[in-house]
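Hey, weird one. I pasted the non-specific serine/threonine protein kinase sequence into the form twice and got a warning about non-standard characters only the second time. First submission, copied straight from the form history:
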Amino acid sequence: DFGDTNLVGWAKIKVREGKQMEVIDADLLLESQGGTNEAEVKEVKEMIRYLEVTLRCVDDMPSKRPSMLQVVAMLRELMPGSNDGSSNSA
């Protein structure tokens, strides 16, 4: 229930309260429960990272929003085989 808040506002409030899991669709969580515990944790962390990218794209201040080029780079970092988003530089 969003109350008087729109979807974006509701999601921002939940994340600010540390309740990211309430924003993620429960059906997605059920689909991920077929694997090992470690795999499930990794998938949930990945979902949260996608949520973080999403919220950056809808920041109240347009100047704080990433460009499409930056969004593509962030999403590529989240793709499998990208070392879990960590940098390869030494």
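That's the output from the first submission. The warning seems to come from a hidden character in my clipboard, not from the data itself. Residues 28 and 47 are 9 Å apart (CA to CA).
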